[in-house]
Amino acid sequence: MLSMLIKVAKASDVLSSEITSESVYLKRRQLLTGLAAGAGLALSGGGMSAFAASDPHGLSSRISGAAKTAYGKEEELTPFKSASTYNNFYEFGTEKSDPAEYAHKMVTDPWSVSVEGHAENTGVFHLEGLLSGFDLEERIYRLRCVEAWSMVIPWLGFPLAQLIKKLKPSSKAKYVFFETLNAPDQMRGVGSYFSSIEWPYIEGLRIDEATHPLAFMAVGMYGKSLPNQNGAPFRLVMPWKYGFKSIKSIVKIRFTDKPELTSWQKAGPKEYGFYSNVNPGVDHPRWSQKTERRLPNSLFSPNRIDTRMYNGYGEEVASLYAGMDLTKNY
User: Which residues of the chain are under the pLDDT cut of 50?
Assistant: First the structure.
């Protein structure tokens, strides 16, 4: 494992006369990120200064300088207010408004990610080190949720394939699985009597899906760092799959040689499959998938549109599933 161990003093150990100014701190943080890039990855060693709250994980300058891409230029964006207040994030509750109301309690800086399984670079890595060396870009992607609503968001991040290349999975790695933070003290929905989810939340992909050019790791949206309710500080975006595959607030990545059950497969095996590709020809047992409500919408302005196969990305991804029965491999 390639790593850098950085010991950070506790706040109680620092005299007021020794506190570094914010501007100097941020310059040092950028330097450390650069050093991490040279080393490859960085191991988290402790808590971060309170100054980090003004620039989570040193991403502000990188996000503001992100390259604009042609992805989704023709799309009409969902307003930020809709995209940040109507969310599925069951760790905070089952109502669409719960994440925006309660997710502020989730601590996202410092943040570390554990990498396990069939890969050369495994261990627990500080997020700054894990993200170092990647040029950020903006991609406008549609996101379609299984409950028949959708939105269009300008995501900021980098291709998942770049991260996988950095972690160097072995030839044994056929799948990659992700886990969301599991923190009952910060996430009111975790362990709730009413929850049908087995925590932590787990999602997975085949390696060829994960390395497809459309698969995207997001650290921001609408020109800023991700809000907590949208998966801060680090989430997946799989635009041709239903939204629950785009796992939020990732703390673990695991490379395996065999498939594993994902959270929704465990919760509803007759309703949710491993692949979860958007397919208007396969209805959910409790509702149709043939149409969707594009946010924002209302009773008098439903903004309902036809659902497209693979969420409209079929030309790019259909070859991944050639020869498969898409009604069985749902």
Answer: 1-40, 42-53
